[in-house]
Amino acid sequence: MDSFKEILQSAKDGDEKAFVKLYQLVSLPLNKYLYFKAPGIYEDAASETWYSVAKSLNNFTGNEDDFRNWIFVIARSKVVDILRKKKPTPIEDDLLESKYDDRLGSQDEPSSLVIEEMTTKEAIEFVRDNLKPIEAEVILLRVVVGLPIDQVAKIVKKREGAVRVIQHRSLQKLAQIVGTLPQ
């Protein structure tokens, strides 16, 4: 099996199959993140993100974690740019689901208990509706996308300690809300 480094170099050299592998590495979590950030325009944001990635891939250096972080930083800035220019378009939910990803979190993670029985769309909307924007973004990046604290901190431009506190308090808030819902 090819290592990330080999796949990245092949993609930089113009190998379409290698670029597809890079795309598959992050496309589902990226779509979920973009749906959270801007549900009406997430397809446009995804297109613009991947266009930027393709255009500047030769300038990227780093490992697989760095690549994920790089993509999410680009995506976040694309959402901001598009929101400045456009009105939202209708949402298509099929990009949020995948036959390869039917669970949002591992059973080993306490956070998965909060959203275990929901679809991706329902979970994202639940989080968005019940948390402040920064809290929801941290939960989405940590729980749904699965990024480590240091990468989330870079994306949301906060210290790692602040991200840990936001995550902890947000999960407590969601657990309290879920505990009050009728079964």
Report on the architecture of this protein.
- By secondary structure, this protein is mainly α.
- The protein contains 9 helices and no strands.
- It has helices at residues 4-12, 16-37, 42-56, 64-85, 111-115, 120-130, 133-144, 149-156, 160-180.
- Helix 2 runs antiparallel to helix 3 (42-56).
- Residues 88-117 have low confidence and may be disordered.
Q: Write the element-wise H/E pattern from the N-terminal end onward.
A: HHHHHHHHH
Q: What characteristic shape results from the CA principal axes?
A: globular
Largest sheet: none
Strand share of the residues?
A: under 5%
Beta strand count: 0
Give the % helix.
55-70%
The structural class is: mainly alpha
Radius of gyration: 17 Å
User: What's the end-to-end separation, in Å?
Assistant: 46 Å
Average residue-wise pLDDT: 80
Count, helices:
9
Oligomer: single chain
Low-confidence stretches: 88-117
Topology:
Elements: H1 4-12, H2 16-37, H3 42-56, H4 64-85, H5 111-115, H6 120-130, H7 133-144, H8 149-156, H9 160-180
Key features of this structure:
183 residues
Describe the structure concisely:
This protein has helices at residues 4-12, 16-37, 42-56, 64-85, 111-115, 120-130, 133-144, 149-156, 160-180.
